[in-house]
Amino acid sequence: MSQHRVIASYLIETPYSLAYAAEVMAGEQSTGTFVAVPGETPELKARHRAAIIHIEELDEMSEPSLPNSVPPAGEGNLIYRRGLVQLSFPIDNFGASLANLMSTVAGNLYELRELSGIRLVDIELPGSFADRYPGPQYGMEGTRKLSQVYNRPIIGTIVKPSIGLPLDEYGPLVRSLAEAGLDFIKDDELCANPPYAPFEQRVKTVMEQIERAADRTGRKLMYAFNITGDIDEMKRHHDIVVKAGGTCVMVAVNSMGLPAVAHLRQYAELPIHGHRTQWGAMTRSPLLGMGFKAYQKLCRLAGVDHLHTNGLNSKFAESNEGVVQSIKDCLTPFLGGYPIVPVLSSAQWAGSAEPTYKAVQSTDVIHLAGGGILAHPGGIAEGVSSMQQGWAAAASGVPIGDYAKTHPALQQAIQTFGKAHN
Amino acid sequence: MSQHRVIASYLIETPYSLAYAAEVMAGEQSTGTFVAVPGETPELKARHRAAIIHIEELDEMSEPSLPNSVPPAGEGNLIYRRGLVQLSFPIDNFGASLANLMSTVAGNLYELRELSGIRLVDIELPGSFADRYPGPQYGMEGTRKLSQVYNRPIIGTIVKPSIGLPLDEYGPLVRSLAEAGLDFIKDDELCANPPYAPFEQRVKTVMEQIERAADRTGRKLMYAFNITGDIDEMKRHHDIVVKAGGTCVMVAVNSMGLPAVAHLRQYAELPIHGHRTQWGAMTRSPLLGMGFKAYQKLCRLAGVDHLHTNGLNSKFAESNEGVVQSIKDCLTPFLGGYPIVPVLSSAQWAGSAEPTYKAVQSTDVIHLAGGGILAHPGGIAEGVSSMQQGWAAAASGVPIGDYAKTHPALQQAIQTFGKAHN
Question: What ipTM, to 2 d.p.?
């Protein structure tokens, strides 16, 4: 990797040649337009212009993916060409800055009328970014130490109903979850500092119950408190969690922006649980926005320790192939490390472990289940056991049906959830 | 408007009934799922559940706009129904918080597989948001006072080449622009604190030249310095601009995130020029992301004084109808005020004034032109004059061809740019 350039890879679609479209992109995001202006010397262009380093032709389409592209004049039947384009940008143009990286590699590209599709799919960064942004402080190793969970996934849940539960009901519920052997609870992304249950009181209530449960179980449940809010508020809430003995904070990365998360990372004393709410807006149109491979690198740079990826067979629109690739992306080192923990959720249960392990060959994940734990017919503790047993079976290569013969919690989970989910 | 609820309007597309899809949306973004869980009492739902307040049927499509929606089982030929859905959310669920507003009104909706299209088109907010976020500090009135421009648009440009010009060439160029009578220059969104021209030196160089020009012209050009960067860096750079006598700072709103902009607003002593780079990713797919009507309200809440809208007949993909509506949205009061200045740019020249004024009936805009000023055959000062004359003609209802007969700068502009642009 060049020490002086950022490489960005795009999936594009254009009614022009791919080469021409790539030139437009390179010009728009660096030294300017096609029209020569005074001062735009050959030397300046050599130093500062974005370079096209690779173009790969893909399909040809008869219809544009996005509206309002303006095709070349005078052509007959239009073809919209899809391709992969790699551009490199001199780091001297903007420096190691997350916000200005985004203005450069994404920027105005999405509005170019020479393109009928444009998606940022990957980025490679020079070491100066690593010098400036320390990245995840805890990763899997630190999270395991804090939650005292080894050799298996961290099993967690979300308290339901996610909104509106009075604190005098919320506290005992958290305690029963902690006493049932759960490792982890995350706040709902909708619940941060609501007037009906102000943050400071909520932390106090929750941590009292977690400490009492820990006295009994010998292990402190990790609770990711949602500190999403204004910049100063986020700091205040982080400090409240630390003071109360909490072990994790959560932010909605896209509601905050990357610089806000990097700011949190500067003073954070706890792992940062990154929720990706609004991510669908950035990724669901296949020829627009951003792919997860690029996104998760940005989150790692900003300092996120845990990042949501969805789980297999979830209730959301993403395909299983996409989910598997996202988990693998998180498990792949970046800039020589930057370890981030993928968080699997949505319609998960004990049986989700087997296909997940087969696909990603790792237990270094946080696995969240709602109904798959809370609605287990044997109760919450059996629900938790069923999840652990599902992963034990998967990791040892024993089919869960066989493993379940000697593990009743798993057996009950299969009977209860197996039909609905498979 | 309710004092206790946020109203969000969506354009959706679904293979289900609109009523069913709206229920899924309301559930996902408030009290939870369709499955009843212990604690989700009728009282809790009455207090906290999002309400469907309006559904309007639009077209029916035979193909889905977005991939991976999962239609109801067992149906024959699928119809994808489009409609407008209005939901209201109790403010008690999340409080007056920009970040948590986004997690609520946008959030996971984009990932719902019951939807094949989902776009946030408008929001209405209770007064508690106005109490928490003071909004634009300067607006048009304050910007006019600082730049001493009255009764016509503020005419500005962007220095080209936008990247790479050494400071010893940049300074004199700014001075010649200021002495030519320009009101306003903005940094390129690609240029904030690049290693080849560090921010502090850049401000020093630019402000020296602006002050010297002001000594001669009696009027200080407003220069929007791009302070996009990390949270602390943004504050440091703001302070550098203030100390150097600058009169405007600029941020790339989407590269920073709304909370970062609101944070800047807390200490800002100058107007905030809001660039919307990356906006295309949020809006170009017609059935995804966000419409500008909603977006500009969020920017106003965060405290942006100037917001880019594109200009008519620009080089970007947006239609002229979209541009006109965006300008009108900015000129419409919000929460009883929150005045924001639309910034028109891209392929603009003197002749852009007439159709713009006809469409929006206002001169309360910042009008940026690059080539339309810098490439005027009479020189930069004539280029600036031509822009002012174009607006004078438009505002007085005189066709520019007639007005040009007694205004040679405008005449030359029409001869030079008229054919290329019309």
Answer: 0.97
